[in-house]
DNA sequence: TATTACTTGACAATAAGTGTCAAATATAGT
DNA sequence: ACTATATTTGACACTTATTGTCAAGTAATA
């Protein structure tokens, strides 16, 4: 199972790009990118979009990885994690079909 | 579809309890409880446990509602929300079966 | 050993979440 | 309408998380 950091690092190296080059494109300090690639920090969505661009990765697929990483990390320690995910899916479907709230 | 706030409020009123009484038991300001019941703030886990006690709600079920609410709220605006949840579930299963990380 | 790539940690800046309080509003009884 | 009680709202301080910046560190290679 590949983490988002691994995906980014693998692709960057496959393209022969340096941290310096990618971080310049994304407009972040290369220290941050280094940490992102080692899953020590999470990218923002803006970073993700730019990263997808320069690394020629599918933006939507990367976003799925990003969000799922965040959720998984957030609730992996809960006994009811799996059940909560199922309920969350129902809630989201409900919310999307009833857009007016508050 | 009931939010966690609605669940708490409905049950509190069904039991004929006042915000003041419940918040005293949970040891929080009643303003906070008021906001929790209107989904303006999220309870902490500790609050949830105490709330389950005094409101005679199932602790685990409430926790599922709590976590699923948090996730749903977090990603409802994403087009790929549903897909991300599925991937998250796989990641969690993977993480649980490979407990040693880092 | 000099150079380049990457990593690490300390620190400041910013944002997000929390608790407290008092005033405002609502609700119901008289 | 008046009172009392319940709830809501918003301002604020306080704490905690997140984020960016930087310089010094390590690692690998020529």
Structure commentary:
2 copies of one chain form a homodimer. By secondary structure, chain A is mostly helical. The first copy, chain A, has one domain (4-76): 434 Repressor (Amino-terminal Domain) (Orthogonal Bundle). Chain A is 71% helix and 0% strand. Chain A has 6 helices and no strands. Chain A has helices at 4-14, 19-26, 30-37, 45-55, 59-75, 81-97. In chain A, helix 2 packs across helix 3 (30-37). The relative contact order of chain A is 0.11. The mean pLDDT of chain A is 91. Chains A and B meet through helix 5 and helix 6 of A and helix 5 and helix 6 of B. The structure holds a DNA duplex (30 and 30 nucleotides).
Map the helices and strands:
The structure is a homodimer of 102-residue chains.
Chain A: H1 4-14, H2 19-26, H3 30-37, H4 45-55, H5 59-75, H6 81-97
Helix pairs in contact in A: 2-3, 4-5
Chain A binds a DNA duplex (30 and 30 nucleotides) through helix 3.
> In one word, what is the shape of chain A?
elongated
Largest interface: A-B, 33 and 33 residues
**Which percent range fits the helix content of chain A?**
over 70%
**What's the total number of strands of chain A?**
0
Mean pLDDT of chain A: 91
Span of the ends, CA to CA of chain A? 40 Å
What is the count of DSSP helices of chain A, taking H or I runs of 4+ residues?
6
**Quaternary class:** homodimer
User: Structural class from helices and strands of chain A?
Assistant: mainly alpha
Instruction: Classify the fold: give the CATH topology of chain A.
Output: 434 Repressor (Amino-terminal Domain)
Question: What would you give as the CATH superfamily of chain A?
Answer: lambda repressor-like DNA-binding domains
Regions of chain A with pLDDT < 50 over 5+ consecutive residues? none
CATH architectural label of chain A: Orthogonal Bundle
Secondary-structure element pattern of chain A, one letter each: HHHHHH
What value does the Rg of chain A take, in angstroms?
16 Å
Report the portion of residues of chain A in β strands.
under 5%
Would you state the CATH class of chain A? Mainly Alpha
Q: How many domains make up the 3D coordinates of chain A?
A: 1
Question: What does the main sheet of chain A amount to?
Answer: none
């Amino acid at each position: 199972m590949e983490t988002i950091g691994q995906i980014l690092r693998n692709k960057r190296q496959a393209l022969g790009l340096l941290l310096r080059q990618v971080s310049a494109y994304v407009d972040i300090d290369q220290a941050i990118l280094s940490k992102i690639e080692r899953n020590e920090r999470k990218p923002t969505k803006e970073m993700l979009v730019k990263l997808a661009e320069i690394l020629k990765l599918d933006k939507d697929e990367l976003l799925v990885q990003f969000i799922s990483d965040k959720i998984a990390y957030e609730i992996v320690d809960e006994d009811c994690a799996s059940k909560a995910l199922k309920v969350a899916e129902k809630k989201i479907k409900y919310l999307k079909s009833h857009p007016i709230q508050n």
